Amino acid sequence: MIPFRDTYRDIPLYSPAKKPCRVDLSDNTNLFGSPPSADRVLREEGLLKLSRYPAGYAPDLKRAVAHYAGVAVENVTTGCGSDDVIDCALRAFLEPGDVVAFPDPTFVMVPMFARLSALKPVPVPLRAGADLDLDVEGLLATGAKLIYVCTPNNPTGTVASRAALERLVDQARGVVLIDQAYVEFARGGDFLDLARTRPNVLVTRTMSKAFGLAGLRVGWGVGAPSLVAEVEKARGPYKHTTLGEAVAVSALTEDVAWMEACAAEAVENRERLRGGLRALGLEPLPSEGNFLLVPVPEARRVGEALRERNVNVRVFEGLTGVGDALRIGCGPWPLMSSALKALKEVL
Ligand code: PMP
């Protein structure tokens, strides 16, 4: 018998229910497509650079991120999606057996990454009530050396208040990782200023959502140079493909206006979708992301019936404080309209 890791025995693979559907609203990506400069960069540079390694630790991408985020290059780390930046941060700051605390519900990969590094994931329910804000005392009481907070939060779409987050950052004994994968869709609620000014804050961001580049797997993090240096150790030198880095750089420098226009339309259609869902008797949670979480009884059955009608949404069962729910990604109105029509038939 091969002596596999004990701590890996019960770890499942990530496999949300999915089948190819004409309307796929299941992963909160940019449903308008990918940034205009991507096409040019892939055609012009694509085949020229494949035989050599990219430069170690992605200096071009770091420069572009630093400029975009208004920080120094020393404040920036990057990874194979922000998934990777989160994973590296857990490995960089925690020893096996340490606690990582996070609000519940939140991004499902966090407890998974915790287990991959033999850490102890400790969920702390979001506060009950309409705003679903952080339970700061509950998170601090875990004594975790790393506390993860996602805002706007996946899957709820709700945001952490600045007061709660600042209190958490001030009193945490270690690092507070603020995942802002959806911040481009939010009204305010950008916490890069905390990453710039506090020694214990790492903000992670992604090119996968508003920037429309999920397939290229590029994410980044901003924090104090001493913090970032530790994450870079856990990261290793070659986390991007040459092409992924080149396209991310062009998107950050040439396509910000395109990204903002897509995000604005996604937000407008999110609220229009909310109206359509209300007309069906449903009450989505408040959202600052490009998606709505809609409590629906028997969500799994509803999700399967929607897939039979060529509409894929993300199903959640028994979410803490919410129950069964569907998460519907927002983009061009014709897609929203198809989802509403299918949902009306199913309900
Ligand atoms: N954080 C959150 C909250 C997410 O929803 C996702 C993607 N589902 C990620 C991080 C990871 O995205 P990526 O690795 O594509 O950057």
Automatic annotation (TrEMBL):
GO biological-process terms attached to the record: L-histidine biosynthetic process
EC number: 2.6.1.9
Entry keyword set: Amino-acid biosynthesis, Aminotransferase, Histidine biosynthesis, Pyridoxal phosphate, Transferase
CDD domains associated with the record: AAT_like
Pathway listed: Amino-acid biosynthesis; L-histidine biosynthesis; L-histidine from 5-phospho-alpha-D-ribose 1-diphosphate: step 7/9
Name of a matching Pfam family: Aminotran_1_2
Annotated InterPro entries: Aminotrans_II_pyridoxalP_BS (IPR001917), Aminotransferase_I/II_large (IPR004839), HisP_aminotrans (IPR005861), PyrdxlP-dep_Trfase (IPR015424), PyrdxlP-dep_Trfase_major (IPR015421), PyrdxlP-dep_Trfase_small (IPR015422)
Every Aminotransferase class I/classII large domain range: 23-330
N6-(pyridoxal phosphate)lysine modification, residue list: K209
Known cofactor(s): pyridoxal 5'-phosphate
Catalytic activity: L-histidinol phosphate + 2-oxoglutarate = 3-(imidazol-4-yl)-2-oxopropyl phosphate + L-glutamate
Highest rank taxon of the organism: Bacteria
Single GO MF annotation: histidinol-phosphate transaminase activity
Family, as annotated: Belongs to the class-II pyridoxal-phosphate-dependent aminotransferase family. Histidinol-phosphate aminotransferase subfamily.
Subunit structure: Homodimer.
Protein name: Histidinol-phosphate aminotransferase
Highest classification ranks of the organism: Bacteria, Pseudomonadati, Myxococcota, Myxococcia, Myxococcales
